[in-house]
């Protein structure tokens, strides 16, 4: 192929003047190439974000819900002073943390098996098996759990079949915990597996040579080296749970309100964009702090 | 090496996790054949009637058409913008390089609802009525990074010497691009496009705030689940969406040896 | 495109530098609505082929929409909203040109009218308007200074929906929604106006509070209603956001009693569920709905054609029976009887006057109390309180 290509090239000798310019000033071409995508992001996306941030310092006319462009901190004051919002923020962060821990616990043995026990072939198959649900429609996977968890769903049927009382966890906090853990689990498995795969077997052998039983080698060698992977996975599980509103709407019950739900309702129902904007800053701030910590733990190298 | 019992325990664990991952998805496919319109277990019988009912539903058809059109338009735009950016960044070593990468990943790193409401505020503030194009703008914004990441990763692995050789042989920039660079990166471009389309086709949160009066397929699904009156059709549509998003991802994974699909987990 | 982007950027700059005007109506109604001077059309032109509606669930059923599309060529795209708040929000979203009409209830109407989101309509273009019950020709919630900001549609009560398995005898009081015996088995709407339902209950059960109108509450009365709902909170399985939510909850047996619209009962019964509904002795809240035309409607002719169509006795009757409500067109009674014997009396379509007074119709709570003082709790506080109740 390279021969024929080279042959074809030789015939097309001679360069356009523009070509020469690019050749002499390579950065010019890069700048021209970079201009459209960067312009897109700056003009549309960053402008949008800045606009949202500004809106957070406005309020609305409570009767007509028209935005009133007067600078004030009322929205932030309300978030800080109203116990309901503190409760909602605490609940959201709490569940996000719980989901992260659950997924880490579920993923660790799985990733360990993939990286250290499974054959190359099994590894590939398992990798694909984890990726597929990740890409299968998000809504579909949440919806599947409505079918499973509702009063006359497969869970209660199965429990009854083995002689247990029905669980009735549909529309509860427990339901959200299960569904979030389910949906984000692949996000935890993949980076954890990637980090563990990088631990050389020789390290474990060395530990064994020094007389450490296998479980100690895992605890003292694999676990610390896998931590960046787990933290990288936790960025996804934590932030995705933090910003979600669809799962609480579909499988949550009374008292399942998340930050995302209040934001969604503020925009979609109360038409109070300023308040939504102010509240939306909360998960962003939490994530910024989380990312700073994650960076210290070396998670970015494992991404 | 692990003891036999440890291995057995790990195997059981892996099997249980796989069941946990796949039973819900398989269940939806199963419910699509449910004769009853009440979603209880066990289902009373199997039927194909919902497939034709769904296919004949004009609402679902127009939602599907909109999703396909928006997905294709957003993919095309993301392809151009994402590839441009990848080429530029690949050649440059300038101080703002990391900042640009961070900028591109932002729509996926921030919760979707923030991207959604800020775009919504932008459109209403700027006096752009919500339309087909506002959906496309939203989708393009979070799809660019998918193309960008895939193309950039391939460019980094591509030997610059091949391109230099072509130049030395007298090829101009365009010829080099067409005959050397493009064939080298083409699979990664296709993979990026596939993933971008899959991402767009299934997106619901950003679309909620940029679609206005129109329904994309995911928006229709979300609405129909909440209204609860047409769940049999939801089962069919949802099974279909799973297939439509998975097929491009499988193709993309084959083209890039798995790396592409795994590189974008931040995608959702 | 780029020019527009520049405009946005400039607007952002202006905003940052602090130019802005403040306008607050705060819920007292003084100056005339912003659209009062827009002259409605005097004739209906040819349809535009499309009509985008915001409606209550069940208001755009195929059984009458299909015929409308066939005769007028207007394709109907409907979005079902779960609350009046959502309707108001949708009407304002995206520059207000997304939707042509909204089937707004009394508690949304004034917000839409004074927000400038809807414009006057010409009743002369609705042939059946003359057959409307007198009250609904110009109710205070959609007609201001003689200007009609919409055409009345239907009205009805919010009901108590219950499982007949759990309650073989119909409950006679709303107290079943507050009874700890039903812990985890109750559902009520996720809607701040629900505070009025609590106030209505307190009006009868705690007379010393002196509640006269469940939408006009002094701080003390309001606090009592909120406290009652906070007590109710542990009993709630889920606050329903759409009628479909509630139907699913009853169908799957997750709840046994709840506050509902008649629509849910009809749908559940049709699906074979063992449920019934009732209006308890304390009375009920209710709604009077109006089709309103968006100020920036892009399909006004189809909108008028639609309004005329849904005002005809046949469609009025069909919708009344489908949703379980009462038509405003007096001629619809005979059509209802033809479709379902006894239904005219069942839904009080023949005796509106007496029945009408037993229902406390949704309206937007404002600071002005019935005695003229500005000491009542406005709706914004209802919304905040509702968040703290349901959180």
Walk me through this protein's architecture.
The complex is a heterotrimer of chains A (303), B (268) and C (391). Chain A has 14 helices and 2 strands, in the order αααββααααααααααα. Chain A has a two-stranded antiparallel sheet with strand order 1-2. The N terminus of chain A is likely disordered. In chain B, 55% of the residues are buried. Helices cover 78% and strands 0% of the residues of chain B. Chain C is of the alpha/beta class and 391 residues long. Chain C folds into 2 domains: 187 residues, D-Maltodextrin-Binding Protein, domain 2; 154 residues, D-Maltodextrin-Binding Protein, domain 2, CATH 3.40.190. In chain C, the strands form 3 sheets. In chain C, strands 1, 2, 3, 4, 7, 12, 13 and 14 form an 8-stranded mixed beta sheet that branches. Chain C has a 4-stranded mixed beta sheet with strand order 9-10-8-11, covered by helices on one side. A two-stranded antiparallel sheet of chain C has the order 5-6. Classes of the chains: A mainly alpha (303), B mainly alpha (268), C alpha/beta (391). At the A-B interface, α1, α2, α3, α5 and α6 of A face α1, α3, α4, α5 and α6 of B.
Helix/strand layout:
The complex is a heterotrimer of chains A (303), B (268) and C (391).
Chain A: H1 2-11, H2 17-24, H3 26-55, E1 59-60, E2 67-68, H4 74-81, H5 83-117, H6 120-135, H7 138-149, H8 154-161, H9 173-197, H10 201-209, H11 214-243, H12 246-251, H13 259-268, H14 273-296
Antiparallel strand pairs in A: 1-2
Helix pairs in contact in A: 2-3, 3-14, 4-5, 5-9, 5-11, 6-9, 9-11, 10-11, 11-14, 13-14
Chain B: H1 4-31, H2 49-55, H3 58-91, H4 97-109, H5 112-126, H6 132-157, H7 160-168, H8 173-202, H9 205-210, H10 217-227, H11 231-256, H12 259-263
Chain C: H1 2-16, E1 50-55, H2 62-72, E2 75-80, H3 84-92, E3 101-105, H4 106-114, E4 118-119, H5 134-137, E5 143-144, E6 147-148, E7 151-157, E8 159-163, E9 186-187, H6 194-205, H7 219-232, H8 243-251, E10 257-260, H9 262-270, E11 275-278, E12 284-294, H10 300-310, H11 313-323, E13 326-327, H12 332-339, H13 343-346, H14 352-356, E14 359-361, H15 379-390
Parallel strand pairs in C: 1-2, 1-3, 9-10, 12-14
Antiparallel strand pairs in C: 3-12, 4-12, 5-6, 7-12, 7-13, 8-10, 8-11
Helix pairs in contact in C: 3-4, 6-7, 8-9, 11-12
């Amino acid at each position: 192929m390279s021969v024929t290509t080279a042959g074809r090239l030789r015939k097309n000798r001679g360069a356009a003047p523009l070509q020469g310019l690019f050749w002499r000033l390579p950065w010019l071409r890069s700048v021209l190439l970079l201009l459209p995508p960067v312009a897109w992001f700056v003009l549309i996306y960053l402008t949008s974000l800045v606009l949202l941030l500004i809106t957070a310092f406005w309020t609305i006319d409570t009767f007509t819900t028209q935005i009133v462009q007067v600078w004030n901190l009322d929205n932030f004051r309300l978030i800080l002073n109203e116990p309901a919002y503190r409760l909602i923020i605490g609940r959201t962060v709490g569940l996000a943390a719980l989901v992260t821990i659950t997924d880490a616990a579920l993923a660790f043995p799985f990733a360990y098996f993939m990286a250290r026990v499974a054959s190359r072939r099994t590894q590939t198959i398992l990798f694909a098996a984890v990726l597929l649900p990740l890409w299968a429609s998000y809504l579909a996977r949440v919806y599947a759990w409505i079918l499973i968890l509702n009063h006359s769903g497969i869970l209660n049927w199965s429990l009854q079949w083995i002689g247990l009382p029905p669980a009735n966890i549909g529309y509860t906090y427990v339901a959200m915990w299960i569904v979030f853990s389910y949906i984000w689990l692949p996000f935890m498995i993949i980076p954890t597996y990637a980090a563990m795969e990088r631990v050389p077997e020789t390290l474990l052998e060395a530990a064994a040579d020094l007389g450490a039983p296998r479980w100690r080698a895992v605890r003292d060698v694999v676990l610390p080296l896998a931590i960046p992977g787990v933290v990288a996975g936790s960025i996804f599980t934590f932030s995705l749970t933090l910003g979600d509103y669809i799962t609480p709407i579909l499988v949550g019950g009374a008292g399942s309100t998340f930050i995302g739900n209040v934001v969604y309702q503020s925009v979609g129902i109360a038409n109070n964009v300023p308040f939504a904007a102010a509240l939306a800053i909360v998960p962003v701030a939490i994530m910024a702090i989380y990312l700073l910590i994650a960076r210290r733990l070396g998670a970015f190298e494992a991404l | 090496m692990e003891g036999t019992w440890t291995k057995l325990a790990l195997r059981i664990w892996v099997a249980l996790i796989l069941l946990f991952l796949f039973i819900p998805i398989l269940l939806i496919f199963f419910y699509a054949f449910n004769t009853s319109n009440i979603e209880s277990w066990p289902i009373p019988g199997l039927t194909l009637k919902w497939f034709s009912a769904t296919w004949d539903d004009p609402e679902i058809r127009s939602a599907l058409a909109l999703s396909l059109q928006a997905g294709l338009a957003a993919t095309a735009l993301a392809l151009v913008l994402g590839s441009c950016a990848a080429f530029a960044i690949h050649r440059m070593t300038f101080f703002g390089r990391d900042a640009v990468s961070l900028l591109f990943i932002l729509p996926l790193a921030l919760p979707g609802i923030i991207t959604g409401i800020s775009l919504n505020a932008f459109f209403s503030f700027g006096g752009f009525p919500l339309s087909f194009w506002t959906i496309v703008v939203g989708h393009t914004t979070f799809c660019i990074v998918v193309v960008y990441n895939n193309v950039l990763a391939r460019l980094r692995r591509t030997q610059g010497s091949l391109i230099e050789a072509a130049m030395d042989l007298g090829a101009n920039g365009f010829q080099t691009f067409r005959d050397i660079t493009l064939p080298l990166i083409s699979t990664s471009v296709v993979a990026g496009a596939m993933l971008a389309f899959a991402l767009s086709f299934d997106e619901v949160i950003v679309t909620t705030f940029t679609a206005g009066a129109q329904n994309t397929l995911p928006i229709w699904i979300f609405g129909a689940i909440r209204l609860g009156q047409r769940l049999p059709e939801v089962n069919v549509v949802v099974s279909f969406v799973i297939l439509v998003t998975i097929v491009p991802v499988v193709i993309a994974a084959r083209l890039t040896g798995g790396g592409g699909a795994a590189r974008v987990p931040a995608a959702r | 495109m780029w020019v527009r982007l520049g405009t946005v950027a400039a607007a952002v700059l202006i905003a940052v530098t602090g130019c802005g005007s403040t306008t607050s109506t705060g819920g007292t109604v003084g100056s005339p609505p912003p659209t009062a001077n827009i002259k409605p059309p005097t004739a209906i032109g040819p349809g535009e082929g499309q009509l985008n509606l915001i409606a209550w669930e069940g208001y755009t059923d195929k059984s009458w929409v299909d015929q409308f599309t066939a005769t007028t060529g207007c394709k109907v795209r409907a979005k079902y909203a779960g609350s009046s708040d959502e309707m108001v929000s949708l009407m304002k979203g995206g520059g207000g040109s997304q939707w042509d009409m909204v089937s707004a209830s009394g508690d949304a109407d004034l917000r839409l009218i004074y927000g400038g989101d809807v414009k006057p309509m010409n009743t002369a273009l609705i042939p059946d308007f003359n057959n409307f019950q007198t009250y609904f020709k110009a109710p205070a919630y959609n007609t201001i200074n003689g200007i009609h900001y919409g055409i009345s549609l239907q009205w009805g009560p919010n009901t108590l929906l219950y499982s007949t398995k759990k309650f073989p005898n119909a409950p006679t009081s709303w107290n079943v929604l507050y009874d700890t015996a039903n812990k985890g088995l109750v559902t009520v709407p996720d809607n701040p106006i629900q505070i009025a339902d609590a106030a209505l209950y307190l009006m009868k059960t705690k007379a010393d509070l002196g509640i006269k109108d469940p939408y006009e509450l002094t701080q003390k009365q309001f606090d009592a209603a909120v406290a009652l709902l906070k007590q109710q909170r542990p009993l709630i399985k889920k606050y329903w956001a759409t009628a479909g939510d509630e139907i699913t909850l009853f169908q799957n047996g997750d709840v046994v009693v709840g506050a509902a619209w008649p629509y849910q009962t009809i749908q559940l019964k049709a699906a074979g569920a063992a449920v019934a509904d009732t209006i308890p002795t304390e009375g009920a809240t209710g709604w009077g709905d109006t089709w309103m035309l968006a100020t920036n409607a892009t399909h006004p002719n189809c909108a008028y054609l639609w309004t005329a169509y849904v005002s005809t006795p046949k469609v009025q009757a069909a919708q009344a029976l489908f949703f379980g409500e009462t038509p405003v067109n007096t001629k619809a009674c005979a059509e209802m009887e033809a479709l379902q014997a006894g239904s005219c009396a069942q839904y009080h379509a023949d005796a509106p006057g007496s029945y009408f007074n037993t229902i406390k119709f949704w309206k937007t709570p404002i600071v002005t109390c019935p005695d003229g003082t500005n000491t009542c709790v406005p709706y914004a506080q209802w919304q905040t309180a509702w968040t703290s109740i349901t959180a």
